[in-house]
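#struct-help
A.M.: can someone run this one for me? Single chain, 156 residues.
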Amino acid sequence: MGIPLSNIEDRWQEEASQRDRGTVEQYPTKAQAWKAAERLRLSANPDNPQATEVTFRALAEKYRTDELPELRHSTQLAYSSYLDIHILPKWGDYPLDAIKPFAVEQWLKTLSLARKTRGSIHNLMRLLFNAAMRWEFVEIQVNPMKLVRVKDRSSL
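D.P.: on it. Structure tokens below:
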């Protein structure tokens, strides 16, 4: 006769719950635990990703996991640096729909970087918004980063 199907499902769900929960050793800070929970939330609702508000940080982490490994090593290093040093400290905690082109354009002007580097940062944000639309974290629309202009600092 075997084990009833409901018992197998219950056992599987209990094991999955324990596996996904994580430990204090894995996530020693509250911020790390929240980041892990956000990643789980995104993967838990693939049929309805807009059911939860997605932050730019969660988008960036999914991009790092799913897309970045496919790029050249030098590109991976550059993108990781742009994310860690410039983009995530400013935009990481913003919901995707709260990031507006004018605000990004003004922020890029404040960065004491070469125009080419600011352009690369802008391009990375554009790629991330393209991924957000492809993964249906936001409605498919004109990429808001397409509206951002990167001007030479000397012409300001």
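A.M.: thanks! The chain has a mean pLDDT of 81.
D.P.: also worth noting: The helical segments are 5-21, 30-44, 56-66, 73-91, 101-110, 115-134.
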